[in-house]
Amino acid sequence: MRAGPTEYREEPCRSALNRVTGMAFRWSLNPYTGCVHRCTFCYVRSFERRADRPSDERYGTTIRVKTNVPTVLRAELARRSWRGELVAIGAATDPYQPAEGRYRLTRACIQALGEARTPLSIVTRGPLVVRDVDVLQAAARRAAVDVNFSIPTLDADVWRRTEPGTAPPRQRLRALRTLVEAGIRAGVGLAPILPGISDRPDQLAAVVRAARDAGATHLWGNVLHLQPGTREHFLEHLARDWPEQAERYARLYRGTYLARADAEPIRRRIERLRAEHAIADRCQAPLAPPEEPEQLPLAI
User: Mean pLDDT of all residues in the chain?
Assistant: First the structure.
């Protein structure tokens, strides 16, 4: 069943930074709520279900646009209590989904973080990020900046079936190359890996080779996990697109996570591929800090 047209709701927010527990970062920032990419495996569907919002085919048909998020963020970064900790942009939505082309909220937030000398990390499937090379460079002169392109597979059939609203993976690789050539750390998140669908050695190797060829400064991977909300939606699509895998997934995912005995061989394979293909930071040199205070490019 195809989802209907997307509705955009322009609504102000009370806070910009979200405190996070159990992750490698303590703060996240999401300029939008909801995502038109509508990936079948998206873990955010579980958050939506807990918030009593649709996690099924309706997810992504309504996008909340936090129109004042840059202003609120600047106020939060100016507090005496702010310690300049890493901020992850896009933990619960893609900050470079199509709405960003119009609203430019992610761009304005990067500018605010850069001016506050706050390190930031971005996760995206959106090649639109190349538009913001200037503010990313300016921010990287003041604090650590890295961009992570989520590229679970280069298999065209798997991509079309599981990431219906995203740009093709090779467009993301071209965007990655552009960022690295501009001196910005940019790498690949090979996630989520789908057992029996996108975990063949040749499939994984294809992504790692392409990441290296695009100049990726880093690469990481992880296997699919299925929390309530995500689980029901993904398994429904699995039964339609790969019915031969349905019984196997029922066995593998009795709980949320893949058993260690099944997950570790995949993780080790990625580690071997990363070493074999010499994925490493190949930026020529860190972007030099400005000699004198400068105004970052206007976020317009």
Answer: 92
